[in-house]
Amino acid sequence: MSDFIIDNVDIYDGSGGKPVMGSVAVSGDRITAVGQVSSTIPVETRIDGKGLALAPGIIDSHTHFDAQVTWDPMVTPSPEHGVTTALIGNCGFTIAPCRPADRELTMQNLVRVEGMSLEALRAGINWEFESFDDYLALIERQGVGPNIAAFVGHSSVRTYVMGSDAPLRSATVAEVESMRRLVAAAMDAGAVGFATSTSPAHNGADGNPMPSRLAEHSELQALVGVLGDKERGAFMLTKGGPTPVPFLETLAADTGRPVVVAALLHNSTDPDAVFNDLEAITAAQGRGHAMWGQVSACPLSTEFTLLAPYPFEALTAWKPAMQAASPKQFRDLLSDASFRDAIRNELKQPAAVRLFNGEWGKLQVLEVAQTKHRHYEGQSVASLAKAARVDPLDFMFDLAMSEELETTFLSVLLNSDESAVARLLTHEYSTVALSDAGAHLTFFCDAGFGLHLMGHWVRDRQIMPLTEAIRRLTSHPAEIFGIRDRGRIEVGAFADLLLFDPETVGRSPSRRVWDLPAEQRRLTTDPLGVHGVWVNGTRIVNADGVVPIDDLPGRVLREF
After folding, report:
1. pLDDT tens digits, one per residue of 86-132
2. The whole model's pTM is what?
């Protein structure tokens, strides 16, 4: 007997092939029949899928749910947006392994690098673990809504071995060997791979670089080499200047493991850079080395206040503000003409990678704190500064300080040129991800990246067929990361499914909610056109949203 059958539905099997009209039968956690399913088969529930499409569940290969999953096993809001498997630990910003003595530092790093609320982290994280294996076991004990696969993270491993020195210096030979043992243990426990970052935008507590940024090439070679030794796992890196694609290709060549290069976003001030990286990745593929570039279907937009100005935090000139010893010292800096001049001067200098490059026309006043300033909302800082006949940075800082730093700004940082983004999304060796779900919760919410791809880019812009978009969201990441029996609708595969309406699929504008631990706020979006999501054969979402269930169906994936 089947547990349920979805009838009269257009089946997109994840292969990229043409859809077929038919039925899909599920028993337990597996798909048992696809296509023309006999109407005489005993079944507990039949679902009429007329006018709808059925696809494999979305695999989100770039999330930061590492902390959130310990207090929110449903990892809100990703399952509502069709995500049935989430890869956590990207960029190497994990919370395991972690010694008790390093918990506060780990949280302080996440506050800075991932825009997380310290109050929410302190109130929410369940620290009933120290090792990576213990962390996975905790997730399993608590249960989880979607499936979870976890990278072992470089910054966490470095901090475990080096403590407070991790973001300050190179590692010794002995320390690298200790890190190797931790990575090996994590791979044995079931890590999907090893993740790191060398991006200059990634700074942690006190404005120090995230620990992984201090790693020399020899350290990276040693740690990624563990994947080669184990003959399993993928290497994921958010790339900065010290790690060009040719060097990363040597890691792919030496280990025989796939290398996934993030975050390949289009920067209008250096429009060729991302395509040069993809050309280098293409050349590496031509030499038989498995390399992929992670790209995003969404513009990188962020909401912020000057208390946590993500677009500025990668600037060297901003570092004194991150190290301010008191609120008064911080405000004095913001008023200081030399501090402002240092920021202006740095923005004038060319940079290979920088989130904000002084494009004041792309930075607007989103929300003011005082009624007398309400007419500023929705206007760019550039236009407001011009009208006031002042420098844009001075206008922004003065406005924020007049409102006790409560002014909210919105900046479109990267991926603002849709013709360029279309090229990224359709590139042969790109993989669509970079939702950053679980991070930057007060800045943006791209958990619905897959629905956005199918709605905006497929239906509205028609840059690729729906069949190809679904392949890129499902079987393609499954193949890259070695996720078995998922990402396809076929007999024997796990019943991770997404039922949706192609005519209405998408995501809503973002809105604020206050549902984090300690009543902290986050941005969220609502799914559009989603009629059902199943994980391992259990329905967790219907047309009205999340379905309350006692036993969460997701699994910690450990075999790749």
Report:
1. 999 999 999 999 999 999 999 999 998 998 999 999 999 999 999 99
2. 0.91
Q: Which long-range contacts (CB under 8 A, 24 or more apart) does 452-455 make?
A: 452/297, 452/298, 452/506, 452/507, 453/297, 453/425, 454/500, 454/502, 454/505, 454/506, 455/504, 455/505, 455/506, 455/507, 455/528, 455/529
Q: In what order do the strands lie in the sheet with 300-304?
A: 300-304, 408-414, 363-367
Residues 79, 543, 477, 469, CA torsion sign: negative
Query: Are the C-beta atoms of residues 533 and 145 closer than 8 Å to each other?
Result: no
Where does residue 438 fall: left (phi above 0), alpha (psi -120 to 50 degrees), or beta otherwise? left
Number of other CB atoms surrounding residue 406 within 10 Å: 14
Cα 303 from Cα 394, distance rounded (Å): 19
Q: Quick check: 458 and 469 in contact, CB under 8 A?
A: yes
Report the DSSP pairing between strands 545-546 and 20-27: unpaired
Parallel, antiparallel or unpaired: strands 43-48 and 2-11:
parallel
Report CA-CA distances (Å) from 365 to 15, 36, 305, 344: 44, 55, 10, 19
pLDDT band at 352, cuts 50/70/90?
low
Domain ranges of the chain: 58-299+415-479+517-522, 302-413
DSSP-assigned letters across all residues of 40-87:
TS-EEEEEE-TT-EEEEPEEE-SB--TTGGGT-TT-TTGGGGTEEEEE
* Tokens (6 digits) for 443: 């800045």
List, in order, residues 6 or more apart from 173 with CB less than 8 Å away.
none
Q: How many residues does the chain have?
A: 560
Residues pairing with 195 in the sheet = 153, 236
Q: Which residue has the tokens 């078995």?
A: 484
Distance, in Å, from the CA atom of 151 to the CA atom of 439, rounded to the nearest integer, reads: 16
CA–CA distance, 452 with 81 (Å, rounded to integer): 10
Asked if residue 426 lies in contact with residue 464, where contact means CB atoms within 8 angstroms, the answer is yes
Centroid of chain to Cα 66? 11
3.20.20.140, 3.30.950.10, 3.40.50.150, 3.40.50.1220: CATH of 58-299+415-479+517-522: 3.20.20.140
pLDDT of residue 82: 98
* Token pair 């007398």 in the structure block, residue: 372
The CA-based angle 382-445-133, given to 5 degrees, is 135
Report residue 448 as tokens.
Answer: 């619905």
Q: Which two tokens stand for residue 201?
A: 């935008």
DSSP state of 374: G
Query: Hey, how many other C-beta atoms are within 10 angstroms of the C-beta on 393?
Result: 18
- Distance of alpha carbon 516 from alpha carbon 522, whole angstroms: 7
